[in-house]
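Narrative progress, year one. The postdoctoral researcher (J.K.) led the effort to move from monomer predictions toward full complexes, under supervision of the PI. The following entry was the first complex the group processed end to end, covering 774 residues in total.
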Amino acid sequence: MRITAICEQAVRLEGAVANAVVSFRDHTVSLVAVVSDQIRDGRPVAGIGFNSIGRFAQSGILRERLIPRVLDANPDELLDAAGQLDPARIAGVALQNEKPGGHGDRAGAVAALELAVWDLNAKLADLPSGAYIAQRLESTPLANGAPTYAAGGYYYPEDSTARLKDELCSYRDLGYTAFKIKIGGASLAQDLDRIETAIEVAGDPGKVAVDANGRFDFDAAVTYGNALAKYNLRWFEEAGDPLDFALQAELAACYEGALATGENLFSSADSRNLLRYAGLRHDRDVLQMDPGLSYGLTEYLATLAAAETAGFARSQCIPHGGHLINLHIVTGLGLGGCEAYPGVFQPFGGFSSGCALVNGNVTAGDAPGWGLEQKDSLAPLIAELVA
Amino acid sequence: MRITAICEQAVRLEGAVANAVVSFRDHTVSLVAVVSDQIRDGRPVAGIGFNSIGRFAQSGILRERLIPRVLDANPDELLDAAGQLDPARIAGVALQNEKPGGHGDRAGAVAALELAVWDLNAKLADLPSGAYIAQRLESTPLANGAPTYAAGGYYYPEDSTARLKDELCSYRDLGYTAFKIKIGGASLAQDLDRIETAIEVAGDPGKVAVDANGRFDFDAAVTYGNALAKYNLRWFEEAGDPLDFALQAELAACYEGALATGENLFSSADSRNLLRYAGLRHDRDVLQMDPGLSYGLTEYLATLAAAETAGFARSQCIPHGGHLINLHIVTGLGLGGCEAYPGVFQPFGGFSSGCALVNGNVTAGDAPGWGLEQKDSLAPLIAELVA
C-alpha cells in the first residue's frame, strides 16, 4: 500500500459571526486528501481530513514541511505491521526535525493530514469511521449516536434577544434539545438576558451552556461566576485565557457549577498541565480538546488516556468542533457528546443528510470513513481536490 | 508616517548539524522587511527582522494572515502618540481575529514582523537598537557588551571528542571563554567524555553548559543529573519536554546545580506557567525565552516582567538565539548574557564585523538598528528583499 499524492486546499468559512474575542469573517480551513494506490469502483481511494474549525488553514506548514516529508519517506516506514497506513507513524514522519513545544498552527496542520489517514483506513475497511475506530481501538461505541448540543448564540452586528430566541428556536425545531451561547461580548446585564432567553427556549438550565472564549480576567470571571451560579447551567466555558491555569483553579474554588475548557490546548503535553494545575473537578468539569486542532486522533488518544488517569470519565470529554469528524470520534470512542453549529461555519460545520437527529442524539450514518463526501457543501470541494 | 510595503522571504539555513532531537538540514527562517515612507540618503527606510533560529520560516502565516491585516488597517492605528510606528499596536493588528492559546508557529511569524518595526524605529532615531531600546524603555544597558557563550558541540555524522575539542578550541581562538555543548544524542559515557573535553578547553566547569534539547524522560533526566552533579557545570538545559513542568520541578528538587529552560515557550502565558509550576529557583536557574520565537520584544517584556515579579534577576535571563537581534536586546535591557553560534546557522547566526569580542563580551557595534546590513552573509539577502 502506497500514498500516491497528498493534496491540500484552503477553504474559506461562510457566514460572518463573532464571539467575544474574534470575528470568523476571514477564517479558513485546510482540506486535505491522502490518495492511495488502492482502487475501489475503478478509482483510487482517497482519505479526507480537515483541521476542524476556528483557527486557520495551514497551507504553508502542510505544503512546505509536512507533505514533502511524508512523500519523501521510505513508504514502508508509513505502514503498520498489517501493511496498512499507520496514522501515528505518518504523523511522526510529518514532524521529523520539528522541535518539541510550540503547539499551535503546526498541530492543526498535522491533524488534517492524520485524520485523512483515518478516513482512508476506514474506507478501505468499508466502515464508518466511528465503527472503524471502535473496532481498531477496542472501545465501546455509543449505541444511539452522540448527545449533541447546538452551539450558536454568537454576537451579530444587529443583535437582540429576539434574534437569539429565533435562532435557538430554529435549532429546537431541527431537533436539538441542548444549546450553547456566547457570553462576554456584551454587558453582564445583556448577557443575563441572553441566558434567560436560552433557558426559556431549552426549558431547563441544565441544557444551556455558556462560553466566554477566554476573554475574562480573574475579577470578571468571578463576577460572571457569581451571577451565573443561581441558574445551574450545564457549564461555564473558557472563562479566562486558555493557558491561565491559576485563574481556572481559583474560579473552580469559588464556582460550584461545572466548568469547561481545553479547546485551545493543542497537545497532550499542554492538556496534562491543565489536568495537573487548573483545579478541574473530575466529578463535574468538561474537557473539550479537539483532535482536529491538536495533531489528530493519535494525540487525542494520549490526551484521553491522561484524562482518564487523572480520574475523568469519557462522558466528560465533549470535543470542540461540531462536524462529521468529531461526531464519528465521539461515537466511536464513547465520549460524552458532540457539538453542532447548525447555522454557521459552512461548508465544514454540521453533519450530512445521512445523519439522523433523534431526541437530541445524532447518529453518524452508514457512509464509509468520516462520510464527508455525503455532505452537500463539501462534496464538490472534495471532488475538485482529488480530481 | 506610513508603511508602504511588507516583504517576506524564506531563507534556508546553511550547515548540517544536529542536536539530540532534530537535524537542522531543512530549517528555514523568515526574513521580513517593513518599508516606510521615510526617506534617508534618498532611499526609503526599511526595518528588518527575522524569527530567530531553530524553527521554520513562516511564509504562509505572514503572507496569508499577518501582513494583509497590517496593510489593510487604518494606518493611524499603527502609530503611537508621538506618531511613530508602535510595535505593540502592529503586533495587535497582526493578530486580529486570532484566538488565544496555541502559541507556536504564529508566535515566530509575529516576532519577525514586530522586530522589524523595532529596527525601523531605531534606524529613524539613528541609534543602534540596544541604545534605542535602553532609551525608549528606560532600562540600564550593559556597559561593556554582552557576556556571550559559544554554543556548539552538536552531533555530527563522523563524531569524536577530538573533533569536539578542535571545535571548541576554534571558538576559544575567536575569543570566547564560555561554551555550551549538546548531550543526550550519545551514550551517557560518551557524553561525559564530551563534557570533560569541554571542561578541559574552558579550563573551568563553570564556563561549560550542557543542553539535552528536551529529550529525557524523568529517569533519564535524573540519571544525567546525578552524573553531572560532580562537575559543577554552568547549567543543565532543557532536560525534558519543554512543557513538562512536573519533570522540571522534580529535577530541581534533586539536582542542586543550575537548570536552564524556556526557549520552547512562545508566549508570556506559557512562561508564567513555567514560573508558577516548574520549581525553578530564583537564586540560580536560567530563563532562555527568545523574543524572535515568541511574538517579539513587546511580548518578551511581559515575560521579563513576570520573571522579575517571580523574583528572578535580569542577569538570569539569557535568551536562546545567537544573533545580532538578541545581542542588541540583551545589551539594551541589561540581561545576563547572549548566545553565539560561531560555526553554524548561517546566514543568521553570529554577529557582524562591527561587533567586537573582548574578554568573552560582545559589543553590538555602532550601526543603526539591529545592524543586520553589516553582516556580510545577510546584506545581499536584505538588499534583494527591499529592492
